[in-house]
Amino acid sequence: MKIKRIGFCAKASSQKAKRKAKELAREVQKDGYEVFLDSLNFKKNKKFKTLDLNEMGKEVDLVVVLGGDGTLLSVSRACTSKTLIFGINMGTLGFLTPNPSKNCLKLLKEILKGNFKIDERINLKVKIKDKEFDVLNDVVIAKAALARIIEIKIEIDGKFLTRLRADGLILSTPTGSTAYNLSANGPIVSPKDKNIILTPICPHNLTYRPLILPDDVEIKLQLLTENEKVFLTLDGQEGFRIEPKEEITVKKSDKKTLLIVPKDYDFFDVLRKKLSWGVM
Q1: pTM to 2 decimals?
Q2: Which of 118, 123, 270, 95 is nearest to 196 (CA)?
Q3: Which pLDDT value is given to residue 121?
Q4: What share of the chain is helix, strand, coil (3-state, %, to 5)?
Q5: CB-CB neighbours of 266 under 10 Å
Q6: Domains annotated on the chain, with CATH
Q7: Which of 36, 67, 106, 239 has the most CB atoms less than 10 A away?
Q8: Quick check: 81 pLDDT over 90?
Q9: pLDDT at 204
Q10: Diameter of the chain by CA atoms?
């Protein structure tokens, strides 16, 4: 794929990320690329054009994201299955943005020469009522802070699995396995694996354990609890209240997220460094 049009998005609360975005945009613009900045964080001027994030995700070949995993998740929601995403870490942990900011110009120049590989990630399709959403990381059903334990009926491919009594439930992709799922003692799954992970949040029955499913199943969830505030959260970016007896369907989406990484990128190397495994 030949890259001609490049968009730059920065973490909204980081002036450092915004400055770095402009710096990179100037450099690649000198090389003849058409450059855009996201209109949420940058004002239109004579040097750079701006695009709304939803427009950018459809109009450019490559989106360069400067921030943390949350910034990349918000950008990925606006991108198509053909848009390349390059994440530069200017946040904290950065599993989705593993590329360091200190040599990001050099990395970007190498990518524009074609020296990269595509790290393809699956998305989940979430359907509730008449609305559908694509998520890269996870779908979370959880009680409000002062609510009591909730009960969720779970079916897989039309077959009853259980009535889970817990604080909530996480459904994650392999990409999301290092996010909320990991904090809830869920398993880490390689992004190359095609799975959906179900992880209970503080289950009432201590025999409940995370369940790893193939990605071709359809999962149906129904909230059985009444008179409690329960919320559905998508990638930590969007959320709304669920009503009693309301059904939620989750399955693999047709949409894919294309992360681009240097050719020497290794997931297990990133895992070891981010989680400080083997550090004395």
Answers
A1: 0.93
A2: 123
A3: 97
A4: 20, 40, 40
A5: 11
A6: 5-116+262-274 (3.40.50.10330), 123-254 (2.60.200.30)
A7: 67
A8: yes
A9: 94
A10: 62
| Residues 78/65, Cβ–Cβ less than 8 Å | no
Instruction: Tell me which residue has tokens 């939803």.
Output: 54
pLDDT at residue 280, rounded to an integer:
55
- Sorted by sequence, the CB contacts under 8 Å of residue 153 that are 6+ apart come out as 160, 162, 163, 164, 221, 222, 224
Mean pLDDT for 156-179 is 98
Residue 192 — very low, low, confident or very high, per pLDDT cuts 50/70/90? very high
Q: What stretch of H or E contains 57?
A: helix 53-59
Q: Under a CB-based contact definition with an 8 Å cutoff, are residues 140 and 180 in contact? A: yes
Q: At residue 24, what is the residue type?
A: L
Q: Which two tokens stand for residue 79?
A: 């991108």
Contact 8, 56 (CB under 8 A): no
Q: Looking at 31, 52, 61, 69, which residue is catalytic?
A: 69
Q: What is the mean pLDDT of the chain?
A: 94
Q: Is 266 a catalytic residue?
A: no
Distance (Å, rounded) from C-alpha 238 to C-alpha 180?
15
Buried b (16+ CB within 10 A) or exposed e, 121-135: bbbbbbebeeeebbb
Given the structure tokens 């590989």, which residue do they identify? 117
